[in-house]
Design goal:
- It holds the Pfam family FCD.
- Keywords: DNA-binding, Transcription, Transcription regulation.
- The chain is mainly α and 263 residues long.
- Helices cover 60% and strands 3% of the residues.
- It has a two-stranded antiparallel sheet with strand order 1-2.
- A hairpin with a 3-residue loop joins β1 and β2.
- The protein starts with 21 loop residues before the first helix and ends in a 7-residue tail after the last helix.
Length: 263
Amino acid sequence: MNDPSLTLPEARTDADASPGSPVNRRQGKGLTHELVEALGLQLRSRSIKPGDKLPTESVIMQTFGVSRGVVREALSRLQAAGLVQTHHGVGTFALEPAAQERFQFDHSSSGDISEMLEMLELRTSVESEAAGLAALRRTDEHLREMRSALHDFEQHLAAVGETVAPDFRFHLAIAQATGNHYFSELMSHLGLEVIPRTRVSSSWLNVEQRAQHLHKVNQEHQDIYAAIERRDPEAARAAMRIHLVNSRERQRRAHADPAHAAE
C-alpha cells in the first residue's frame, strides 16, 4: 500500500505566496476550503489511491499549518463527498470516487431559507426513522463515533463555524448505525450543506444568541444519543423528530424575526 503522507505538498507561508497561490486564495475561501481542495485533488487524481490510509490529523496539521478543527472539518467534507471513510480509532481511508448521482441538493441557492426549510422537512422524515433503526442496530463502535462527534461539538460551542463538521458527523454516524447503506449514502451525498449554519447566515445573531442556539442543539443531540445508547427506538425517533422540527422552527422564526432567533 502506498504511503500517502509522501504525496502531501509542503506547507506554505505568506512569504512563499504568489497572486494565484493557495495562501492568497485562503484569504477569501478559508483554510478548510483550501485543505479540502488540496486533498480532494490528490484523491481524485489517485495520488492517494482507493484503500490507502490518509496521514494522521497531526501530520496533516503540520504539513498544511492548520488547526485540528480545520483538519477534522475538511475530512468530514471529504467523507460527505464520498471520497474518504473514517473508522474511529483506526484512521481515514480513501474510497473509489463515486459517479455523479441523479439526486442533487441545490447547492447554488445557499442563502435561500425556503430551500433549507424543505431540506429539514425531508431530513425529519428520513432521520427520525434512521434514529429508531440505529437504536436497534448500533454497535459500541457506532456509539464511540457519535460520542466523539458530540465531544468535538461541545469543545467548540463558542465558535459557530467549528460546530458544523461535528454536527454532520453525529448525524452521519446515526445513519451508519442503521446498518442500511442507503441511509448513510444519502447523508454522505447531501453533505455538510444539510446543516443550516452552512447555508443560512447567522451573522446577525449576537454572541449570546449564538451560544444559546448551540447549547440547545447540543442538548437535543444528547437526548438522541441517550435514546440510541439505551436501545430505545421510539424515544430515539421522537428525539430526532423534536430536534429537526425545532431546527426548522428556529430557522423559520429567526428569518421572520431575528430578535427571537435563539428562542
